[in-house]
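I hope you will forgive my troubling you with a question about protein structure. I set the record out below, with my sincere thanks for your time.
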Amino acid sequence: MFQNNPLLSQLKQQLHAAKPQVEGIVKGTNKAYGFLECDKESYFIAPPEMKKVMHGDRIKAVIETVDDKKQAVPDELLEPMLTRFIGKVRFNKDNKLQVLVDHPNINQPIGANQSKSVKEQLQEGDWVVATLKTHPLRDDRFFFAQINEFVCRADDQFAPWWVTLARHEQSRYPVQGAENYPMLDQKTRENLTALYFVTIDSESTQDMDDALYIEPIEQNGVQIGWKLAVAIADPTAYIALDSQIEKDARQRCFTNYLPGFNIPMLPRELSDDICSLKPNETRPALVCYIETDLQGEITAKPHFVSANVESKAKLAYNKVSDYLEQKENAWQPENSEIAQQINWLHQFTLARIQWRKTHSLLFKEKPDYSFVLADNGKVLEIKAEYRRIANQIVEESMIVANICAARYLHENAQTGIFNTHYGFDKKFLSNAHNFLLANLANEQNHAELEQRYSIENLATLEGYCQMRHDIEPFEGDYLEFRLRRFLTFAEFKAEIAPHFGLGLPGYATWTSPIRKYSDMVNHRLLKACIYHENYEKPTDDVLMRLQEARKQNRMVERDIADWLYCRYLADKVESKPQFSAEVQDVTRGGLRVQLLANGASVFIPTSTIHDNKDELAVNSDEIALYIKGERRYKIGDIVNVQLTEVKEETRSLIGNLI
């Protein structure tokens, strides 16, 4: 009688519409139930309803009251958590193909089929790329996916690399090369092969893109400054703008430096051979002449030339550092010319470091962590490496060369690809102002600092640098870590703009064209200015792609490292190793710390810190954990931790505080 009754159907719709509705994000649990997280409230999702949704889905839900408790009933899918995803192959008891999503909060297997483009015979545990095809809220069906790409076998020792690259849609293969590489740039070049250029790199480096030569500037027999020549390899001499190599480089944007190996932006024949500034080989290059006084101040306009150069020696960071630090039995330069270049570069570098310390900003000294791998990908060791004096020689030379490129491009081309950073995000300027006053001001200096750290002043390059110099003497990293949360992101721009992070009014990199597409673009612009040719302003899509690729590369590097840390520490967890660590973040769930010995990120659950959650409070302004009203832990604190658990399936490390 009531079947297909339009009046009854209309009544149901009216009752449904009368119930309160909310939008939110589904949060899964390791149980069958879940929660819908909305702006101000969290709603329970019962197990039968959780079968219709997945962790991370953004949905619209109807709120119903069951036994005096509000529950969310999923009603409409707004944005699925999954579209393209990484998973592992599984076969159920009926031998039907399924895929397990590689995500710590998604544990339900999804039925799947295999695309015809995937030729491999899939096996249990294989890594694949899949696309979600159906969703219960969208298609009135079950979850179903299609496997579109085979990544690697379950037992592939290099799975961390291949899976991570596939996740971020980056190729594991080098750019396809050409049959030959004729010199396309036939313009006249200056012959600078007589200058005693040297390269300083890691011993294993093959893609050497910078060489240095320096000499003193004298007046009436007295030294008054330095003349530095920075020679940079010129791959654009071999690459046509409309070539496939150019298109591939524009898509990749960077050489991907991964633990154990790199995936070059350019074909290896170019990056490691034809363009590489190998010793005793004549190579085309762009050269910038830079003049400074003895205090490191630039005293003349930079002069760029297209040239042929010849590196006279391939030097290694550690050997040069040992020599300058006068280590016992240290490496010695092969001849007096090399020794002279090293010593002059050393003096120049010390002057530039002091200049930047006074007039701009220096980098905070933090170690780089490097993985030492066996041929099969096993992690043998993790080293904490600090920048030594030879690294600083190259670093300071490249920084001053990039400062000069920014000035030159701005004055001569009115465009380029500039690295910019605007300091504090505008919406957080007042937060930064209040934080600085709360932590640095007292009764005596409050009025002075109120002006010094005014919102208007902090928004200027000069005011920002002044603030950074003020906090340098403070022990620990708390002030820097807290202020970092108020910063905006670095950006690529086609017009000159300040780089607050470096404390500079302009910065444009051109010193790594073998490894960075932005530097290739700047090379073409520099050469156009040298030869008075026409040029085009870098387009927005190129700038956007550079931004995306930089973010992708950082995520790839981080994700592979997390996986390798788990593999390295897995067999050590039984011995409950102890480490010194720095607090990186504080949340209601726990502390995120970084082990100082190897750089691994470890999570400390609050349940292991204090057993009464009602006595815990997180101060989000301070990024600190309070227990019984007392501040116990804050970002930047050094703590001792014990590693208690390694979960390779989620690439996570768990520990306790000691």
About this structure: The chain has 17 helices and 30 strands. The chain has a mean pLDDT of 94. The first strand starts at residue 21 and ends at 28. The radius of gyration is 29 Å.
